[in-house]
Amino acid sequence: MVHDPHDHGSEYQIKIVHEDGTELLSGWMSSEERVVEAVAAIQWVQGKTYWLQERNIVCPDCNNMGHRILEYQLTDNMSTRYSPHDSRYLRAGETSQ
Questions:
Q1: Which parts of the chain fold into alpha helices (H)?
Q2: Which helix (H) or strand (E) holds 69?
Q3: pLDDT in tens, 31-57
Q4: What confidence tens digit (pLDDT) does each residue in 61-80 have?
Q5: Does 5 fall in a domain?
Q6: What Å distances lie between residue 61 and 4, 6, 7, CA to CA?
Q7: Which strands, in side-by-side order, build the sheet including 49-56?
Q8: In angstroms, how far apart are the furthest CA atoms of the chain?
Q9: How far is CA 67 from CA 1, 9, 38, 47, 79, in A?
Q10: Domain-located, residue 26
């Protein structure tokens, strides 16, 4: 197995999207154990949409690669104003192809 020198792991963030489209973000977490604790502590409210964001960690040597951010929906309901392409974090994290 060849190790990719640019794979430095991942960080995770919880995003809560309110019905009016506003977002509440947790801080970035570096361990999956911390994510499990954070998800378990959520006080789930109907009408809000909950997401887990994952971004790659980059070092100074490969910082020009930029962050890749993936989102995973934690709930079935969708905010009527939410659209994945509207996330300022996704736009900021996109890399040019």
A1: 32-41, 88-93
A2: strand 69-73
A3: 999 999 999 999 898 889 999 999 888
A4: 775 666 688 999 998 765 44
A5: no
A6: 13, 9, 12
A7: 23-25, 10-17, 49-56, 69-73
A8: 47
A9: 24, 11, 22, 30, 26
A10: yes
Six-digit token string for 26:
């947790």
Instruction: At 17, list the tokens.
Output: 């999207």
83 part of a folded domain: no
**Would you say residue 38 lies in a domain?**
yes
Domain of 24, in residue numbers? 10-77
If one counts the domains in the chain, the total is 1
- Token pair of 24 as six digits: 């509440």
pLDDT higher at 11 or 97 = 11
Label residue 17 exposed, middle or buried (CB < 10 Å: 0-12, 13-18, 19+).
Answer: buried
- How many residues can be counted in the chain? 97
Structure tokens at 97: 């192809």
